């Protein structure tokens, strides 16, 4: 018996030694979910053994940087989309393989992995923003809830009518905190109107462009009928029926179901400017799978990534964490969306969602944009003065990273 057990252990050791081992560092999956997601990979590629390490958002970035500096990078790593430029600019990531680039280049979110015209990762799981609207308030204001606003002018008209109701604001616009003032529509409106804050070559500040001036004037006008506060407060006000419209992420679906189960609301694409070239632009956040340049098993790493990119595999994670969706458009046919139609709106919104400009200067630029929004809609400063002043500040930041 002991001899048989010894033989089994030896065979197991030999088989294990013959496997290609991959280290996969990621944020999205605990041990149980990782086992569920990778079960199919183990069957399909029995010669590849994957060691999965879950990182935390509070320390993960620093751990990845430290590992790369020490020459101990994982074979596959999950990166937040705003991190890609930082790593790509230091030449520590491999470019996407040409075969994979042909498959994924046109996926929503592929631009998350782009830096200076080259692609350094694979768009895996994506999140975005859409517009929530209160059905009952629309009806009370004489609006058709089956036809939510599609354009800026339609939204402004609807917001004015809803704000005329007693004790109600037409829309909620975030202010007075980091991130949400520009993430929850201001920068999105700039993109929808054909503008941006940084030139395509990432060298010039373009905040004071004519398109952005149009956007800022509209946003300032809209704010006259808005409740302006932190995003959390706005979410509560919407749930309580005190706000007609609110731009937010898909996480709000779960929050509203739990805290305000009787709220009658819908979700639509973010309204676009009233001109032919206007688009329903939104903010794109996402998880990118990348291969560090230190990887010694690139072929095996590509097999793992291509497996994780499959819509039916990525949907396993979506079902555990509604609010992040597969980058692969084919996931729309998954029966889960039939039972969760509000999430399908977010999935559709991904088609016209954009990541922030891929410049290492972005963390400083986003702080500037927060001040832009506050000056426009809280302090009601002159649009021209605000855009000109902060354009100079953004240019200084860009010059620092040259």
UniProtKB/TrEMBL annotation:
The alphabetized UniProt keywords are: Signal, Transport
Which molecular function term from Gene Ontology is one that the record holds?
Answer: maltose binding
* Domain of life (superkingdom): Bacteria
Q: Name one GO cellular component term.
A: ATP-binding cassette (ABC) transporter complex, substrate-binding subunit-containing
Q: Which InterPro entries match?
A: SBP (IPR006059)
Keyword Transport in record = yes
> Which Pfam families does this chain map to?
SBP_bac_1
GO terms for biological process, alphabetical: maltodextrin transmembrane transport; maltose transport
Which family does the entry's similarity section mention? Belongs to the bacterial solute-binding protein 1 family.
Full protein name: ABC transporter substrate-binding protein
């Amino acid at each position: 018996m002991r001899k048989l057990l010894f033989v089994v252990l030896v065979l197991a050791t030999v088989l294990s030694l013959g496997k290609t081992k991959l280290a996969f560092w990621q944020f999205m999956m605990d041990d149980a979910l990782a086992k569920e997601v990778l079960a199919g990979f183990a069957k399909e590629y029995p010669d590849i053994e994957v060691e999965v390490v879950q990182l935390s958002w509070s320390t993960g970035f620093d751990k990845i940087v430290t590992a790369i500096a020490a020459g101990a990078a994982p074979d596959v790593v999950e990166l937040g989309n705003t991190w890609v430029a930082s790593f790509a600019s230091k030449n520590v990531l491999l470019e996407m393989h040409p075969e994979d680039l042909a498959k994924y280049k046109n996926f929503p979110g592929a631009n998350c992995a782009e830096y200076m015209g080259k692609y350094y990762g694979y768009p895996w799981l994506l999140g975005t923003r859409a517009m929530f609207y209160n059905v009952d308030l629309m009806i009370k204001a004489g609006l058709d809830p089956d036809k939510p606003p599609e354009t800026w002018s339609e939204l402004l008209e609807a917001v004015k009518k809803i704000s005329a109701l007693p004790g109600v604001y037409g829309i909620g616009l975030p202010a007075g905190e980091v991130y949400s003032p520009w993430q929850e529509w201001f920068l999105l409106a700039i993109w929808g109107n054909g503008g941006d804050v940084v030139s395509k070559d990432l060298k010039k500040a373009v905040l004071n462009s004519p398109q952005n001036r149009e956007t800022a004037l509209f946003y300032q006008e809209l704010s006259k009928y808005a409740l302006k506060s932190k995003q959390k407060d706005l979410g509560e006000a919407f749930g309580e029926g005190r706000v007609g419209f609110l731009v937010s992420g898909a996480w709000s679906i779960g929050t509203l179901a739990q805290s305000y189960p009787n709220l009658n609301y819908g979700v639509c694409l973010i309204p676009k400017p009233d001109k032919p070239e206007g688009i329903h632009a939104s903010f794109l956040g996402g998880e990118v799978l990348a291969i560090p340049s230190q990887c010694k098993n690139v072929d095996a790493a590509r097999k793992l990534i291509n497996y994780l990119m499959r819509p039916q595999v990525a949907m396993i994670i979506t079902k555990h964490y509604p609010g992040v969706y597969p980058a692969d458009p084919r996931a729309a046919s998954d029966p889960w969306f039939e039972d969760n139609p509000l999430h399908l709106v977010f999935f559709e919104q991904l088609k016209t969602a954009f990541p922030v400009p891929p410049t290492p200067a972005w963390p400083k630029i986003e702080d500037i944009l927060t001040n832009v929004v506050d000056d426009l809609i809280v302090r009601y400063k002159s649009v021209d003065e605000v855009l000109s002043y902060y354009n100079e500040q953004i240019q200084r930041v860009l010059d620092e990273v040259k």
